[in-house]
Amino acid sequence: MAAIVVSNKALQIGHRLNSQLPVITGTIGLQKRDASTNLATYRRGRGGRSSFSGTVATVLGASGSLGGYVVNRLGKVGSQVVIPYRGDTSSVDRFRLCGDLGQILFSNFHLRDDDSLRRAMKYSNVVINLIGRDWETRNFSFYDVHTEGARRVARIAKEMGVKKLIHFSSLNASPNPQQIFVKGGSHFLRSKYEGELAVREEFPEAVIFRPADMFGPEDRFTITYTNYWRRAHGVIPLWKKGDATIKQPVFVADVAEGVLQAINDPDVISKTIEAVGPYRYYLADLVDFFYRALRFRNVPRYPITPLFQLKARIMGMAPNNPIFNLDKLDKDHVTDVLTDCLTLEDLGVQLTRIEDRVIFDLKPFRVNAYYDENLGEFRDPPKPPIVPPELEMKN
Fold it and tell me: How far is CA 17 from CA 1, 11, 13, 14, 180, in A?
């Protein structure tokens, strides 16, 4: 057998190379590692979907109405996205198209399973928590999802060494929300506020988004008010006919753009961002505009009656995805109130007006949608009036 002769010079080179290699800290598995050994943090390419931005983001709650926009914006700039899901993959399979081959990954998880959350965040430097519910079930209450679930996500993100946590709350979240129909005010808004406090306790550097009602394709704002079950015998019931509620809705794609800007902005650490649209409107004017866009001849607004409140309670018992319930009815009639927090405009986002989108978004649902109209045959409905600040102050 031939002997292998290693020169002294080769040994010296080997020792020198070994001394320059990064040392992995911690144990292999679910423990956080030294950032210098994480190849995912190194950018590659010139930008775009076929590049790698250096961002590995875990997007919790991606199957919601906002999640698709966030995942698409991340994939568009070459980010690697981990999408935790529950049950079957049918609700998240479509996200494979948002990024290049191998950039969109999936991980099975459960909100009460710490180990599944650790697996989903193991290699991520950004975690985006979009998890939320508009209705309660036997397994998950508002408190379970918005407060305890948010606390668990923040705690494990800090444990796994995540650099930036973006948590989604809700505009008007408050310890004492305005009481309209539900005793003590909307439980949704209260649980969202408690969730903000829990996230701050576990992850003080977290960025909290507080979005207003979001509009866009398949949203839960315009579609809710124009749904058949939301009407009652040809009229649309609203609290005080909608004349006592002011809303500042925001386009869902603008919120997703704000998330992308927040990921790359080091100055938003520990900040709260109120994601609202450019203008404020009375709810009555918005609902009238929706039905004009649908080409309904006449849908009068009426006060909400006890009988319609009973209908809301019954609708809330639907096994999955109810159109509305009593708590949502309460939340939807709370006037949007802004504080001194940052807005999407502070992040450099150009905001979209609701009147520039709703006609297109509601086109599939309008009356006689099958009719092949000529260009210019129907005029666009008049835009809803904007509430000027001086008028709002008087009210």
Answer: 29, 10, 6, 5, 70
